[in-house]
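Table S2 (continued). Query chain:
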Amino acid sequence: MKNTGKIAQSLFLTGAVTLALTGCGDKSPLDPGDPVSLTVWHYYNGSQQAAFDALVEEFNDTVGREKGIYVQGFSQGSVSDLETAVRDSIQGKVGADTMPDIFSSYADTAYEVEQAGALANLSDYLNEKDLERYVESYIQEGCIAADGTLRIFPTAKSTEIMMINKTDWETFAEATGASLENLQTLEGVVAVAQTYYEWTDSLTPDVAGDGMAFYGRDAVANYFIIGMRQLGTEIFQVKNGQLTLNVPKEEMHRLWENYYVPMVKGYFGAYGSFRSDDVKTGDILAYTGSTSSAMYFPNQVELDASSYPIEYIVMAAPVFEGGKPCAVQQGAGMVVSKSDKKHEYAAVEFLKWFTEAENNLRFGSVAGYLPVLKEANTREKLDQVIAEQELSVAPKTYDCLTAVFAQMDELELYTNKSFENGSAARKVLEYNLADKAAADRAEVVLLLEQGKSLEEASAAYVTEESFEEWYNAFCEVLREAAGV
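Corresponding output:
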């Protein structure tokens, strides 16, 4: 990550940081004889919730007991359920629970809560030395207040990687000469996907047009945001709280050519809820998705009448040809509700403990999340924690984490700054082109069934006129959603 020193300097020279409690040596407001109780709302379930609960219990029995802090965690179900519960609390709806002391939050939701004046200023409790330990871009993402002070405490992050069905890839590669090196760029992925479609089509010479998709991606919004960043611009540029939309036609055309066109032609696919589901059913061989999705990559392909085991390959997510190496920075942090000095101080003490390298890696190695301290983002540190804590880490999760660790020095992790209507604007990126591609692909399939060739069936959808029509409509819908 380049220029991180300048980013850190700009963050750390805020007035709030210089007034930090820790830096000024203010006496702790905590009293072990009169412990403060904290509630934490999150969206963890299954193994993630079990890992979080185990850490909370350990904190309560050790540092919490020593300092006078008792933490209780409560899963609200899904991310959507958690966001609804938070909004209901802020709005004082009948039957809503009282706001928790801490809750998991993505930047857009945190920005909304901050605008309501309901978040604590975490910069009051962290000094420059504290902040310097964290990955700079994670801290930068959390500085959503108008004065640049910290509101989101980074606790666990993820990025995107490519995962491949190694077993079926090797069969395909042996037959066609396809190479993993071809998958380093998006243009290369499209070319390989076309070859795969044509190869699978040739396996059934009596049935025309039944080639199969090679690749898919989760989170199409990330494709737009990161794709534009790789090509040298920010689709959502935010300065002093003001949004500028950047949708240059040339760059947008490259996104169209490397997502919509292969989707319509059947080289790419999206069938189940997530692309790991599509690998499981054998509908695709590879996908780009979150590191936290690694645990869901299937161990076998399940067909209608049979199944067979598969192995996997983990690679860096592909980058546009000639673009700069950049991948999405995502994952909720924790925010602290504005209350009183004692509760806010205690909340930060817990979050600092939770993000210590050993504790954070214990959680991340189960959940597939990246740790947030600089010192923790290495294979060596992960191996040390696994050995010392005698952890059982799924190989796929381990391989995803270490693959990202190996790129950290060269890779820019990026997320756009928060802005009003950010959630609505992101939904346009997520669904506008993807929905059009799915609908148009369905029409192409009908034409294929009528005996048209793929080129004939898709011809009307991949013209420059088709792009122009979509581009103009897309820009209008995006501007309306973003409120600009």
